[in-house]
Write a structure and sequence with these properties.
Length: 127
């Protein structure tokens, strides 16, 4: 087996061709990405369409909107007259969620306490 020797001109020409091929491949890839974003590719994993979907926006508003959950928490405290124990409830949420008042933690705690307090009110009204 022998090595094929190339002169400087041949190596230069090959390097230029490789560079042009690489640039063309990058352009083709970018064109493919652009065409995918303009048109539905029909797959379940088209991330651009998922990100732009109304359901994604609804989920963001419902589960990750801190202002909405804070307002709901204030309303909950007012409805049940729990402003005096607000700090205790917030401390429990922080303890449960690793030291943060997370949206999910607040939602979960509101739901739990609302169910408990509603059941207690129903029990007291039956007497």
């Amino acid at each position: 087996m022998s090595l094929i020797q190339m002169n400087v001109e041949q190596m230069r020409a090959k390097a230029i061709k490789n560079q042009k091929d690489k640039i063309q491949e990058q352009k083709d890839y970018q064109a493919k990405l652009d065409s995918m974003s303009k048109h539905s590719v029909g797959g379940l994993f088209d991330l651009r369409s998922i990100k732009k979907a109304q359901s994604t926006k609804d989920i963001q508003e419902r589960f990750y909107d801190q202002d909405r959950v804070t307002e709901k928490f204030e309303s909950f405290l007012g409805h049940h007259g729990l402003y005096k124990v607000r700090g205790i409830i917030e401390d429990k949420i922080k303890k449960t969620n690793g030291g943060d008042l997370t949206v999910y933690g607040m939602e979960d705690e509101i739901k739990y306490l609302d169910d408990v307090l509603t059941e207690k009110e129903n029990h007291l009204s039956k007497k």
